[in-house]
Amino acid sequence: xxxxxSNDSPASESRPGASDFAAQAGESxxxxxxxxxxxxxxNKKWWLAPIVIAIxxxxxxxxxxxxxxxxxxxxxx
Length: 77
Description:
By secondary structure, this protein is mainly α.
């Protein structure tokens, strides 16, 4: 049986990486764009960037199509 006073609890700082995890938890949060950029860097998925930009651009055109800017957008196509 284990001693209840031992430092084997999940909250123990004696584990490797526990202090690193605590330090990262205390840092400020990144924006969505920053998180996406970090994802692209870490996973080497740079080919996703043009696809996401094109989808965001089309979404912006759809949103602007319902506003007073619609006649100007329709002349583009």
